[in-house]
Design brief:
By secondary structure, the chain is mostly helical. It is built from 24 helices and no strands. The two termini are about 35 Å apart. This is Putative peptidoglycan binding domain-containing protein.
């Protein structure tokens, strides 16, 4: 059917379609033009991550402060992981989700005011503090689920119907009121007629006439419900998704990969700046280790090795001065004992096997105590790294079997108490929930909606009845 025929069939007058009265660019579509809290959080790509990080660092949050923040996020229905006072990827994701739902700029880092706001929201979630915890979680979830958090007016109306006194009720009313006063009478009348017809053609006709109209977001949302093949106008470009992922990883490899794929993108300069910072940090730590090794050996060769590796290093002048001193005091006979040569080699490679071989060959050397001490340090570092790696793996899996495996491998590990506490929580949840484990896992994966979540489900439950659904989602997200 032609659009003209659609208008006549729907009872719409052609005079109602008045493009001259369409809302100006930037008034409502995509949320620009509104500055009320809770409507359109500034997308993460427009927040300077380094400035946000510096602002949070300036707060000098103690570990107890961080535990409190993680507890507040948990009480509001977010998942920051264990309340251990360590802000890892899961905590940053939870902060970003809370910022997005509460209308704050999305960065994953907190400002002083946001710490207060988060504390206030958690207080309101407590019994006697406003809504109950479960009601507030449902409230916030519905606010996001309806699209109200992204500025969808229809979503706000649905939200007010269910939660007339909800957490975002004032924000929703103000936004609806602002829209009603700004939208032209012709557009409002045309939109009512389109809603009465409620067909894909009607919504497309509205979008042709008012591509940036006040109801454009609602039209797109309804179109996607009726016709899932409708493209999402708010879908983020690939380079923005990649940039957010690189910021989340905040590693040399992550930024290198981003620049390799998007060398001329809008965030390429920021990526290069951060990459330089990370490389400088790495060089500094390497340089310090090399300088300490040179001081320990205290030989001309060791100081020259330091200068060769770090010609612009901080300790170059000190190394040159020490070389001159050693040359002045150098004995005529330069022959060195065999154990001294072996000790230098062990210090150079600085590995467990190197010091083990040195002690095997020279157990009574004057350097033997130093070798044993360094050997203990390296073994301790190796165990600590394995402990940390196992703990991160358990946190990522966040399951009974994952934490049990961590405790089996590290019964006295650094995170033993946290693992046991989380294990009790998961077991209590499992006992109170009679649903099969694969069903609970499927619902959790579906709620998360990420490629990694579906892959984890397929790995943990390869014979579940939900496997076909999970595979379909993996294929869809891998495209």
């Amino acid at each position: 059917m032609h659009y003209t025929g659609l208008i006549l069939a729907a009872g719409l007058s052609l005079t109602a379609v008045n493009t001259a009265n369409a809302a100006p660019v930037g008034t409502s579509f995509g949320g620009a033009g509104f500055d009320k809290v809770g409507l359109h959080p500034i997308p993460a790509q427009y927040v300077n991550p380094y400035e946000a990080r510096r602002q949070e660092d300036a707060l000098r949050l103690s570990r107890n402060d961080r535990r409190t923040i993680q507890g507040n996020l948990q009480s509001l229905g977010f998942n920051p992981g264990p309340a251990d006072g360590l802000f890892g990827a899961r905590t940053r994701d939870a902060i970003a989700s809370w910022q997005r739902g509460s209308g704050n700029p999305v960065s994953g880092y907190l400002t002083r005011q946001q710490v207060f706001d988060l504390d206030d929201a958690a207080l309101r979630a407590q019994p006697g503090g406003g809504q109950s915890s479960s009601n507030l979680v449902a409230d916030l979830h519905f606010w996001t689920e309806t699209g109200a958090a992204d500025g969808n007016i229809e979503g706000m109306r649905r939200y007010l119907q269910r939660y007339p006194n909800g957490y975002h009720a004032d924000v929703a009313r103000n936004q609806i009121r602002a829209q009603n006063t700004q939208v032209s009478s012709d557009e409002r009348r045309f939109w009512r007629q389109v809603r009465d017809v409620d067909t894909p053609h009607a919504y497309r006709l509205y979008l042709e006439e008012y591509p940036r109209g006040h109801y454009a977001n609602n039209a797109y949302a309804r179109l996607r419900e009726i016709d899932p093949q409708t493209p999402n106008p708010n879908a983020r470009p690939a380079h923005i998704v990649a940039w957010n992922e690189a910021r989340q990883r905040d590693t040399i490899a992550g930024y290198e990969e981003y620049l390799r794929n998007f060398p001329n993108s809008q965030h390429a300069r920021d990526a290069r700046v951060r990459l330089k910072e990370l490389r400088n940090d790495t060089v500094t730590s390497h340089e310090m280790r090399a300088w300490r090794r040179a001081q320990t050996d205290d030989t001309i060769a060791a100081y020259r090795d330091y200068i060769d590796r770090f010609p612009e290093g901080y300790f170059v002048r000190h190394a040159q001065k020490r070389i001159k001193e050693l040359k002045r005091n150098k004995p005529r006979n330069d022959a060195q004992p065999a154990d001294q040569v072996a000790w230098k080699e062990a210090r150079r490679i600085d590995t467990i096997s190197g010091y083990t071989l040195f002690l095997r060959d020279y157990p009574n050397s004057r350097r033997a105590p130093d070798a044993r001490k360094r050997l203990e340090e390296l073994r301790g570092d190796a165990i600590a790294r394995k402990d940390m790696k196992a703990w991160r793996r358990a946190q990522e899996e966040d399951s009974i079997s994952g934490y049990a495996a961590y405790l089996d491998g590290f019964p006295n590990g650094r995170f033993e108490r946290d693992a046991r506490r989380r294990l009790r929580e998961l077991r209590n949840t499992s006992q109170s929930d009679a649903r099969p484990a694969d069903q609970r896992a499927w619902e959790a994966a579906h709620k998360t909606g990420t490629l990694e979540a579906y892959k984890r489900f397929l790995r943990d439950y390869p014979h579940s009845s939900y496997v076909p659904l999970a595979k379909n989602n993996v294929r869809r997200l891998s495209k």
